[in-house]
Design brief:
heterodimer, A: 270 residues, mainly alpha, ABC transporter involved in vitamin B12 uptake, BtuC, B: 264 residues, Rossmann fold, 9 helices, 31% helix, globular, disordered C terminus
Chain lengths: 270, 264
């Protein structure tokens, strides 16, 4: 089938549009997460998303509406554990992550076992994304990107050196809170694209690819965004042609971009 | 009566039940140039972090420009250079210009944006530190000394009234260190910038500062460098010979009394 014929299908158009918006969103947040050595928060919140999706299914509600508030609370939990319980970030993420998985398994068991729906969230199903989900993805993506735009300099300053940012009067507590909440919303939005199991790949890969190439912070954000959108679009098309799982294909393409970035850096430095 | 730039009252800090700082009180006036010295683990950096509101004291108060630290909002009046540039991420992909511009954020409202005037201020500061040609380079590609100068530029780009520097010369070679101290001296004398500088180089810092503050978990000495050299407490710590060596390392042609600004 020709590419133009593929593009005539509504479900492919929806997948490309939602996937591109979510890709940009993940890559921009991912830049800050990777540089703050907080990359695995995506994994931790994804596991919390698993628990919340299981709860939504038990309650027969829309997973998106149940997951967003629950995962936002979990993200604040991670932040508070690092601040108040003096846990390192990875340990705090581990606590919330295991709690999310345990809760999900327990709820799925109460609901009578795992079903097809839950697996579609675990491994992604961007091709089954609905019109309403596309609209929600676009609105929330634009909102999150706007917030990042307005707090760009504060986020950059905190990412580089949090103490100095605080000493210059930046409300680091507020910015950190906003940041983890945005990450929570992003993780929930991404579950349809690549699935709960692979969300962190969408946050980490574009950022680490850009880190190999970019010479400034702004360039890193632009490179990461381009890498994310290209990988999502290519991943959807390749998966259709080769009849492969879309989420996993997007992640593999991201990995190829990363390896290419690494090779480019080696060649340039020789 | 002019308000103290900094006032520390009965300040104590404990960590895991042990005293890190105990009952420290002192005040800094506009135009003072304070050398904050003491052995490793004496609490110098902790004291600075409490002054900047980065840590909460166990007891006591800090006032900046007359305001209690909890009510203080004039952070644009303060420039800060943290300790240990090595703790910063060497792969951070920001350019020198992007990093120095961070020093201007405290003056800005919401949303914060960098304009042409800010870029000019960044260029001027980079020229002052002789690193303008590096402005578009990623910080990770610079040497330790160059990175240190970038962070110094970030601390002074905002024209602060109070400059707090935590071991700023560690990564600098002797020539750059002398130029750096000359720059601080000029800021202090010509622009009346109040400076608090943590250093281990006790003898060298005496060439420039108007006062010495020696702490070792508690305040041991606070006064002029001349008094520091005569102090029985300092003799007790270093011994008379070491004190003599420390106090005679600096240039004998300098007139210390002329460097004393805003003393009590």
């Amino acid at each position: 089938m020709e590419l133009t014929e593929f593009l005539k299908y509504g479900f492919i158009q929806r997948a490309l549009i939602a996937g591109s918006f979510i890709g940009v969103l993940c890559s921009i947040l991912g830049v800050f997460l990777v540089l703050r050595r907080f990359s695995l928060i995506g994994d931790g919140l994804a596991h919390a998303t698993f628990g919340s999706v299981a709860l939504a299914m038990l309650l027969k509600m829309s997973p998106l509406y149940v997951s967003i508030p629950i995962v936002m609370i979990c993200s604040l939990g991670i932040l508070k554990l690092t601040e108040k319980a003096r846990l390192y970030g990875d340990a705090a993420i581990g606590v919330v992550s295991s709690l999310g998985i345990a809760g999900g398994v327990m709820l799925a068991s109460i609901a009578g076992g795992f079903n097809v729906d839950l697996f579609s969230y675990l491994f992604g199903s961007i091709l089954s994304i609905s019109k309403a989900e596309v609209i929600i993805s676009i609105v929330l993506s634009v909102l999150v990107i706007l917030i990042i735009f307005f707090y760009y300099h504060e986020l950059l300053s905190i990412t580089f050196d949090e103490d100095s940012a605080k000493a210059s009067g930046i409300n680091t507590k507020l910015i950190n809170t906003i940041f983890v909440l945005l990450t929570a919303v992003t993780v929930v939005l991404s579950m349809k694209v690549v699935g709960i199991m692979l969300i962190s790949a969408l946050l980490i890969f574009p950022a680490v690819t850009a880190l190999q190439i970019a010479k400034s912070f702004r360039a890193m954000m632009i490179t990461a965004s381009l890498s994310a959108v290209t990988s999502v679009v290519t991943g959807i098309i390749v998966s259709l042609y080769l009849d492969l799982p879309t989420g996993a294909t997007i992640v593999i393409i991201n990995f190829i971009f990363f390896i290419s970035g690494l090779a480019y850096k080696r060649i340039i430095n020789v | 009566m002019p308000v103290d730039v900094l006032r520390v009252e009965n300040l104590s800090f404990r960590y895991n039940s042990s005293d890190v700082l105990s009952n420290i009180s002192f005040s800094v006036k506009a135009g003072d140039y304070i050398g904050l010295v003491g052995p490793n683990g004496s609490g110098k950096t902790t004291l600075i972090k409490i002054i900047l509101g980065l840590m909460k004291p166990f007891s006591g108060h800090v006032k900046l420009f007359g305001d209690h630290i909890n009510a203080f909002s004039g952070w644009d009046r303060i420039g800060y250079l943290p300790q240990k540039i090595s703790a910063l991420n060497p792969r951070f992909p920001a350019t020198v210009r992007e990093i120095v511009a961070m020093g201007l954020l405290s003056k800005k409202g919401f949303p914060k944006h960098i304009n042409n005037a800010d870029n000019t201020a960044v260029d001027t500061t980079l020229s002052l530190l002789d690193i303008r040609d590096l402005k578009n380079k990623p910080i990770g590609e610079l040497s330790g000394g160059q990175q240190q100068r970038v962070l110094v530029a970030r601390a002074i780009v905002n024209n602060p009234e109070l400059l707090i520097l935590d071991e700023p010369t560690d990564a600098l070679d002797p020539e750059m260190r002398d130029r750096f101290f000359s720059l601080l001296e000029a800021l202090n004398r010509k622009k009346n910038v109040t400076i608090v500088i943590i250093t281990h180089d006790i003898g060298n810092i005496g060439r420039y500062t108007s006062k010495m503050l020696y702490i070792d978990k508690k305040l041991v000495f606070y006064g002029s460098f001349d008094d520091f050299c005569q102090s029985a407490e300092i003799t007790h710590i270093f011994g008379a010979f070491a004190q003599h060596i420390i106090c005679h390392r600096h240039d004998p042609n300098l007139n210390f009394s002329s460097r004393t600004h805003g003393t009590d």
